[in-house]
Amino acid sequence: MKYSNREKNIYQNQPCQESFFCRNCGGVVSFSGAGTKHRNHCPHCLFSLHVDDLPGDRSANCSGLMEPIGIWIRKNQEWAIIHRCRRCGHLSSNRIAADDNPIKLMSIAVAPLATPPFPLERMTQILTDTEGGKNESD
Question: What is this structure's pTM?
Answer without folding.
Answer: 0.73
